[in-house]
Amino acid sequence: MIKLLAIDMDGTCLNSRSHISAQTLTALHTLAKSGTLIVPTTGRALTCLPHQLTDQNSLFRYVISSNGAKVTDYHTQKTLYQSEIPKQTALSLLNACQSEKLGITAHIRHEYLLQGHSLVFLGRLIYGKDARKVRYVQNMEQTIQELSCDVKELQFYFFPKTPCRSSKCILQTPRLFVLPAPVSMQRSFHQNPPKGRSDASGQSLGIAKSEIACIGD
C-alpha cells in the first residue's frame, strides 16, 4: 500500500502556465482522503510554492524543496532534513567566478535570490504570482557574506561567449553535487540531495521505502 506520494511540481503537477488543473487537484484530494500523504516536491524555494497549493492546507503537510536540499513540515515550519552548501564553500565558488559575466541565483533560508535584472524578469514571467518572494540582489557574494547561514542551492547561468573557466571551477569544487542541466546553466548543491528525497520524509514518519511512490523528473 502506498502511504506517501512525492509529486513533482513544474512540468508534472503544473501545466505550461504554472497552474494546477481542477482535475489534478480533485485527484490529489481523493488520494489524500484515502490516507496517502501528498508531498509536493520541487526545485523551487519553499516560499515559491504554487499558490494553489499553499491555499490547500488540508491537502499536504510536508514539502521537499530546493531540489531536495530541504524537507519541511509546512504546518510547523520545522526542518526534517537539509543538506546545504557551507557558506565558505559558496563564497569561494562565487569569488572564483566573479570576473565573468554570469547570472546567479541562490536559495538561502526560504528565499529565492537573483543577481541579474534579466533573471528577475524571467523568474516573475515564469512563476507569476508564485514569484512574490523573489528578491533581486546586486552582488550575490556580498549578500551571502553578510548573512549568517549556509546556502541550499546555487544556480549559474552562462551567457553567450562566457569562458568555460567558471563551469570547470564549479564542477571541480569538492563535496559539491552538480545537477545535470542545459549547457547554459548549472545547479550546485552540497553533496547529493536529489529532488526525490521522499525517503527522508518517510524515515521521519516511520514509512518504508516500499510504501513510497514518486511522480515526476
From TrEMBL:
Q: Does the keyword Hydrolase apply?
A: yes
- Alphabetized UniProt keyword annotations: Hydrolase
Q: Which Pfam families match?
A: Hydrolase_3 (PF08282)
Determine if Manganese is one of this entry's keywords. no
A GO CC annotation recorded here is: cytosol
EC class: hydrolase
The catalytic activity of this protein is classed by the Enzyme Commission as 3.1.3.-
InterPro entries from the UniProt entry: HAD-like_sf (IPR036412), HAD_sf (IPR023214)
Annotated SUPFAM superfamilies: HAD-like
Q: Which GO terms describe its molecular function?
A: magnesium ion binding; phosphatase activity
Q: This protein is called what?
A: Phosphatase YwpJ
Task: Identify the coding gene.
Answer: ywpJ_2
